[in-house]
Write a structure and sequence with these properties.
Blueprint (H helix, E strand, L loop, with lengths): L4 E2 L9 E9 L2 E8 H5 L10 E8 L2 E4 L6 E2 L2 H12 L15 H5 L3 H7 L11 E8 L7 H14 L3 H9 L4 E8 L16
Antiparallel strand pairs: 1-2, 2-3, 3-4, 4-5, 4-6, 7-8
C-alpha cells in the first residue's frame, strides 16, 4: 500500500502546503494546496482556505483541479497550521492505513533490509535496491553470488540482505534504497494568473 501514495517531501514544491497523489488500480487522485490556496484568494469569492482535487480514471480526466475549491474544516486548519509551525515534533498524517512513501523512506535502512521481502512483480514493490559489492581484497566467485541469489529466492529475503549478512567480514557491501519506479508521479497543477 505504501507505494500507492506518493507524498515524498523531496517531490513537493516549496510553494505547497500539501501535494500528493494516490493510485489504486486504474484510478488516481491528487490533492494539492499551495500557500496561496491556504491563505484564501483575498478579494475574490474564494477567500477561504481550501485545497484542490484531481481524479483520473484510466489516465483520462474525471475531475480537474480547477473544478472545485474544497474548503478546509476547523480541524483540518488546526492540524495543518500546527504541522507547518511545529513540524519538527507535530506531524500531520493519516495513520498506518494512509501511510505513503514518505513514511516508507523514513524507516532505518537496516530495518528495511531485514524486514522486506522480495517482489517478483516490480509494479507491487515499495522499494528499489541497488547493491554494490567491493571485494577487491578478497574476490568473490560467480558461484558464491549465485548461491546468495538462490538463498534470497528460497528465503524470500532480498539479495541485498543476504549479501550484507554473508559478506560482512569479507567485503564492503553498500545498498542504496530508493522508492520503487512504480510509485505514481505527483500530478502537477497549472497555476492560473490573475487577469
Amino acid at each position: 500500500m505504501l507505494s500507492n501514495i506518493n507524498d515524498l517531501e523531496d517531490e513537493k514544491s516549496d510553494r505547497k502546503v500539501l501535494s500528493y497523489t494516490v493510485k489504486w488500480k486504474n484510478i488516481e487522485w491528487t490533492f494539492d494546496c499551495s500557500k496561496n490556496d491556504f491563505q484564501g484568494h483575498q478579494g475574490t469569492s474564494i477567500d477561504y482556505p481550501h485545497y484542490h482535487f484531481q481524479m483520473r480514471i484510466d489516465g483520462r480526466q474525471f475531475i480537474n483541479f480547477n473544478d472545485f475549491h474544497v474548503p478546509f474544516n476547523d480541524h483540518d486548519l488546526f492540524i495543518l497550521k500546527n504541522s507547518m509551525e511545529q513540524g519538527d515534533w507535530f506531524k500531520q498524517n493519516f495513520g498506518p492505513i494512509g501511510s505513503g512513501m514518505q513514511d516508507a523512506v523514513s524507516v532505518e535502512l537496516e530495518d528495511i533490509l531485514e524486514h522486506t521481502s522480495r517482489s517478483d512483480n516490480e509494479d507491487e514493490a515499495t522499494y528499489h535496491f541497488s547493491t554494490m559489492i567491493d571485494a577487491r581484497d578478497n574476490p568473490i566467485s560467480g558461484e558464491e553470488i549465485y548461491e546468495m541469489q538462490q538463498e534470497a529466492e528460497r528465503t524470500g529475503k532480498s539479495f541485498a540482505f543476504v549479501a550484507q549478512k554473508r559478506l560482512k567480514e569479507r567485503a564492503n557491501v553498500q545498498t542504496i534504497v530508493s522508492p520503487a519506479d512504480s510509485i505514481p508521479d505527483i500530478a502537477s497543477r497549472t497555476e492560473h494568473k490573475r487577469r
